[in-house]
Design a protein that fits this description.
The complex is a heterodimer. Chain A is mainly α. Helix content of chain A is 49%, strand content 11%. Chain A has 18 helices and eight strands. The chains are: A mainly alpha, B alpha/beta. The interface between A and B is large, with 56 and 49 residues.
Chain lengths: 417, 198
């Protein structure tokens, strides 16, 4: 009798469906996975160590680069940790702006996820649709911060500046003539809020389009139903959070259960799955996009009616206005101290969490009273989710590994930190 | 919210009492310190006791207190901070456990209590050199294959010890001592707590 032994296969780190730099060592019995050993850390940049050597404000842009498809949610957790330790009151308008941008970010993330997940398991078209919508939301990012992705828009005590009254316009070029540009600029005639309102009117139809492509698609269901089933008890024990946990039927959403910013003032529902498989997680995320759209609508109408300050007036943490800085010695000193030495966060420790598109994103900040954090621990949802990969893929076929990597929505910026 | 937090303190007191070295409630968060020798039984109780039900270990964070307050720290050097979450009771708890020895920090692994702790413990082992006894697979996780040292310890320089380059003569990537000068753009400044409050 010939000797039969398991076959070990290397997957990644350059594999297109490895979502970046995941390296998997798969032990196979025929085509069935016996064991999967993820090797991570290929994108480890030591963000936590770097933050210990930077002032509190200088670390804000690092947060964008953790999970680089949901930039502002990462920042939110970080600035919230500083605010918690320092006891800073954030103006209500800033809280609403944060909620609005968190939800824009959630849609951005889920669109990216849906497109990439679809592409991985054989649905090419949905990727193109998703990226069409992402463009509008990235324009909203750009209008408010000047950067399409790495916004660095949230600051301890509020947000960097108020929403702009006008949207940037396209200009006629060799590629677009005046008539084409006029059409492109149609929904950019008003303020940023008008632009976003137009988007929220169109977006539910777009989600319907994605669902037409996928929800009842026979191939999509064959690839996702019953793949990577997680029971609620097991999901909790493994530290899984976010849509992955809700897909298993646990109704747990920090926006509802431990509300932060202005989430207790907006109305939305938490979708939960039933079977805990990849298909349910898909349904949960699609419904989350609809709910985010609902929240954005409510934020827009509130922000229209309630002008006000968007950053705290406590100049130990937020810079004074340019005008007053040039007329007032004390404010000039505040500005100088803030941007040379940086803020001093009172001694103590705080754990701040946000419901990140991927799960519970936490920042554990320890300060000893200096102008730099003593220790900054980033609790990345993807790290805990990916650690369950071995358990989820056991007994599945090789092709299902790709589905399970996709359904986990992993981004290596946050896993490797 | 406040009544609930109070009852968590009461529950902890009645269930664990003397086994908690210290209990602190600050900024709406509760921190308890537990002895390393008793950690497994205390943490198991926290997971299973009906009043607590911390079914999820959300975060596990290694700590190196050696330079805390620029030398003002007098306790043990290494600790592990666990953040626990009870989905049933909607509560959070922070548990800090100090490693007994500074030269060879050892703690018990909680991977049997919360399987999700597996990678978090590997991370703390990799970055801080903390040893977790009873861990099923204690390997480095984030640093490079063959990495030497524990980069998140406070005595490890930010720029590291080695750098990598391609050597055209040997036609492979080689390691060499770092050539970058350490630099500090903004110095770390620790002032008295009342600074600026007039």
């Amino acid at each position: 009798m010939p000797e039969i032994k398991n076959y070990t296969m290397n997957f990644g780190p350059q594999h297109p469906s490895a979502h970046g730099v995941l390296r998997l060592v798969l032990e196979l019995d025929g085509e069935v996975i016996v064991r999967a050993d993820p090797h991570i850390g290929l994108l480890h940049r030591g963000t936590e160590k770097l933050a210990e050597h930077k002032t509190f404000l200088q670390s804000v842009p690092y947060m964008d680069r953790l999970d680089y498809v949901s930039m502002l949610c990462n920042e939110h957790a970080y600035v919230q940790a500083i605010e918690k330790l320092a006891g800073i009151e954030v103006p209500l308008r800033a809280q609403y702006i944060r909620v609005m941008y968190d939800e824009i970010t959630r849609i951005l993330n889920h669109l990216m996820w849906l497109g990439a997940h679809g592409l991985d398991i054989g649905a090419m078209t949905v990727f193109l649709y998703c990226f069409r919508e992402r463009e509008d939301l990235l324009d909203a990012y750009e209008a408010v911060s000047g950067a399409r992705m790495h916004a660095a828009y949230y600051r301890p005590g509020g947000v960097y500046r108020d929403l702009p009254d006008s949207m940037p316009q396209y200009e006629a070029s060799k590629i677009h003539n005046a008539a084409a540009v006029k059409k492109l600029n149609e929904n950019r005639q008003g303020s940023l809020l008008d632009f976003l309102e137009d988007f929220t009117r169109r977006f539910p139809t777009y989600v319907d389009e994605y669902e037409t492509l996928l929800t009842d698609n026979r191939i999509w269901k064959q690839r996702t139903v019953g793949i990577g089933v997680l029971t609620p008890e097991r999901a909790l024990a493994l530290g899984i959070t976010g849509p992955m946990l809700r897909g298993s039927g646990v109704e747990w959403d920090l926006r509802k259960k431990q509300p932060y910013a202005a989430y207790d003032k907006v109305d939305f529902d938490i979708p939960v799955g039933v079977n805990g498989d990849s298909y349910d997680r898909y349904l949960v995320r699609v419904e989350e996009m609809r709910q985010s759209n609902r929240i954005i609508k409510q934020c827009i109408s509130w922000l229209r009616q309630n002008p006000g300050p968007v950053i705290t007036a406590n100049h130990k943490f937020a810079p004074p206005g340019r005008e007053s800085m040039k007329q007032n010695m004390e404010e000039l000193i505040h500005h100088f101290k803030l941007f040379t030495e940086g803020m001093h966060v009172p001694e103590g420790e705080a754990y701040s969490v946000v419901e990140h598109p991927k799960g519970e994103f936490g920042i554990y900040l320890v300060s000893d009273g200096a102008n730099k954090p003593y220790r900054l621990k980033i609790r990345a949802p993807g790290f805990a989710n990916l650690s369950s990969l071995d358990e989820m893929v056991r007994g599945h076929m090789i092709a299902d590994v790709v589905t399970i990597i996709g359904t986990q929505d992993i981004v290596f910026g946050e896993i490797d930190r | 919210m406040t009544t609930e937090k109070k009852s968590l303190l009461e529950d902890l007191g009645s269930l664990l009492g003397e086994r908690l070295v210290s209990v602190q409630a600050r900024l709406g968060e509760i921190t308890v310190v537990v002895r390393a020798t008793e950690m497994l039984s205390v943490l198991t109780l926290m997971r299973d006791a009906e009043e607590l039900r911390f079914a999820q270990m959300v975060d596990l964070c290694g700590m190196d207190y050696s330079e805390y307050g620029d030398g003002a720290w007098e306790g043990k050097r290494f600790a592990v901070v666990y953040h626990l979450l009870s989905v049933v009771h909607n509560r959070r708890l922070r548990v800090r456990i100090f490693a007994e020895e500074d030269d060879f920090p050892v703690l018990a692994s909680v991977a049997d209590i919360w399987p999700g702790a597996n990678w978090f413990e590997r991370e703390a082992f990799d970055l801080f050199g903390l040893i977790f006894t009873g861990h099923p697979d204690l390997r480095r996780i984030l640093t490079d294959y063959g990495f030497v040292g524990n980069p998140f310890r406070k005595d490890f320089p930010l720029s590291g010890h080695v750098e990598m380059r391609y050597d055209p003569e040997q036609q492979r990537v080689v390691y060499q001592p770092v050539t970058v000068e350490p630099r500090e753009v903004t110095p770390r400044i620790l002032r008295e707590q009342t600074y600026g409050c007039n």
